[in-house]
Design a protein that fits this description.
This protein is α/β, with parallel strands linked by helices. The protein folds into two domains: 7-233, Aldolase class I (TIM Barrel), CATH 3.20.20; 243-306, Four Helix Bundle (Hemerythrin (Met), subunit A) (Up-down Bundle), CATH 1.20.120. 42% of the residues lie in helices and 11% in strands. 38% of the residues are buried. Keywords: Flavoprotein, FMN, NADP, Nucleotide-binding, Oxidoreductase, RNA-binding, tRNA processing, tRNA-binding.
């Protein structure tokens, strides 16, 4: 979800669900050690609970960045061992790390030793054509011994050779049963599942086997789905929130961000283009909010156009 779940996206998602744990996009240790820490770690207070997801493979660097995350007030540090992109392969982290479970254990221990907040790991069920259950079982066993108690498992092998990251979203097939077996073998650990989850029925089914569900792309493309989650999964009252309420609040947020940080409203609006997913008129509404010719207008005027007549010529 790099370049997707930035702080603006998370602000939108927090409007829709008050209780769901949100994750940052993956931030590399190099970006924090050699780059602009504030730009990478700044977030909105409303986002809590929010986890900082790190990418890296050097225990000392990860410990330093985990400490930064705790100092900035994040609620959890998550190590990404699941991303298959060429960028992370060149950096020898992400899904590559599953081939080095002891290194991951060393990374986890280095972070656990310097922070008081939870350190968790997100990973795949295998690498390339290796579909042996023992591979992922031993990975979890080794990393858990270093102090990790929470594993978010993407139920599909990561292909580092022969498939693009885009193709790897659909191929090879998801194998939820592998994640269920992990929970049976490690009942004392918190095991959550990720991958291809798009409906409440599937969420309910998975929660019958596991401790949690992570939703990525469907939550981004169809964010209104989140508006039901607090009532369905956290015992909260049914929300009276409307899509218009959310849009208006996001417009207020755009104005604040422009005044405080010079953020163009289009950098924020791109995250809410799925807000009216499946509704009549949603295509024209998206066209207005994504029309580059309107970028010079204040966001409240763009919102008015989005709810008015045809898109301006």
């Amino acid at each position: 979800m790099m370049d997707w779940t930035d702080r603006h996206c998370r602000y939108l998602h927090r409007l829709l669900s008050r209780h769901t744990l949100l994750y940052t996009e993956m931030v590399t240790t190099g970006a924090l050690i050699h780059g602009d820490v504030e730009r990478h770690l700044r977030y909105n207070a409303e986002e809590h609970p929010v986890a900082l997801q790190l990418g890296g493979s050097e225990p000392a660097d990860l410990a330093h960045c985990a400490r930064l995350g705790e100092q900035w007030g994040y609620d959890e540090i998550n190590l990404n061992c699941g991303c298959p992109s060429e960028r992370v392969q060149r950096g020898a982290f992400g899904a590559c790390l599953m081939n080095e479970p002891q290194l991951v254990a060393d990374c986890v221990k280095a972070m656990v030793d310097v922070v008081q907040i939870p350190v968790t790991v997100k990973h795949r069920i295998g690498i390339d054509k290796d579909e042996s259950y023992g591979f992922v079982r031993d990975f979890i066993g080794t990393v858990a011994a270093a102090g990790c108690e929470v594993f978010i498992v993407h139920a599909r092998n990561a292909w580092l050779k022969g498939l693009s990251p885009k193709e790897n979203r659909e191929v090879p097939p998801l194998r939820y049963a592998v994640v269920h077996q992990l929970k049976r073998d490690f009942p004392h650990l918190t095991i959550a599942i990720n991958g291809g989850i798009q409906t409440d029925d599937v969420v309910h089914e998975q929660l019958g086997h596991l401790d949690g569900v992570m939703v990525g792309r469907e939550a981004y493309h169809n964010p209104w789905w989140l508006a039901r989650w607090d009532a369905l999964y956290y015992g909260a009252p049914e929300s009276s929130l409307t899509r218009d309420d959310v849009e208006a609040t996001m417009v207020e947020y755009m104005a604040r961000e422009a005044a405080a940080h010079g953020t163009p409203w289009a950098s924020i609006a791109r995250h809410m283009l799925g807000l009216r997913h499946g509704l009549a008129g949603s295509r024209r509404w998206r066209q207005v909010w994504s029309d580059h010719r309107l970028k010079g207008l204040p966001p409240h005027e763009v919102m008015a156009l989005a709810h008015a007549g045809p898109v301006p010529a």
